[in-house]
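Lab notebook, bench 4. Still working through the backlog of constructs that have no structural model yet. Next entry is a single chain of 342 residues. Request: give me the structure tokens for it.
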Amino acid sequence: MTIWLWVRRWAHQQFNQLNGRNLLMTLVIYVGLSWILLELAGEQDLTHSASRFIYYLVVTASTVGYGDFSPQTIAGQWVVSLFVIPGGLGLFAIGIGRLATVFIGYWKSSLLGKRRINVENHILVLGWNHQRTLHLIKMLQHEERTRRHIVLCVRPEMENPLPGEIDFVRVVSFTDTASMDRAGISSASCIIIDNEEDDVTLAAALYCTSRNPQAHLLAYFHDEALSDLLKNHCPNAECIPSVAVEMLAKAAVDPGSSGLHHELLSTHHGMTQYAVRFPVNGVSTPISQLFTLFKAEHDATLIGIDRGQGIELNPALDLEVTPGTNIFYIADERVDHFNWPS
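Model written out:
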């Protein structure tokens, strides 16, 4: 082993052992030795004032070198050239390196989903289905007017697929308390569960309901039987069953139906289905009056209502809409303000 290789290994070992405490102690020793050596060299003009000494040390050690203060004796010049500048450069490089390591570690932990998310009133998406999940998030970003944070929570070992756009948490399971706390499950306003395995979706939905019963819970199922099972245990949960087969059958009988449904679901172009709640302090109003209001003022079409007893599509014109009713309509864009009858 050559001397140079031994020195490199020794320096690498010492660098790795320089934690925050040791680095601080080294800095104190460096400052103390610099003052003593300059004092012994007769550089009292640099050492008699603490503020001037620290200023000179920082400027010199960082090689900025303004030149307003400099050693006047030969001994002082040797001290600065052999100890102050080399020692300062080493400590400066180590300090910057350590600081960069901390920031990189913080950024990497966020990218890998290991950091706790400090958000509230956010949309929590549980599950990873590759392009389908990315498409879901993109639609949420386009549709979400209140700009709630979106937190993606996954089980596979992966990195944040949309860094800078969404928050990301990787968990052991969707029923692990410590992991789910990092995703802010208790403060989420909406929880969307979409997994490849229905049993995982069911378990996650039951767990989320127990942790945050006030959140708007949405669960996607391939098997409608499990969807009904969740509804029996969590009546407030909104279950979305797979409609692929139904869509195929409908398109076979009524050609073009698949395109129609795609337009209604799209958030990027064409007519889209939206929902609005009739004011709780409003007065009961017949469908005919609201239908005319929607069409005349917003070029929107009222297609259904939900008075708490299930959705009523194509309601009769003389049907009364009571306060708090959820109204479904089709429009080019979401209507932010309605002139409700008073």
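Notes after review: The longest strand covers residues 216-221. Residues 103 and 162 are 19 Å apart (CA to CA). Flag for follow-up if needed.
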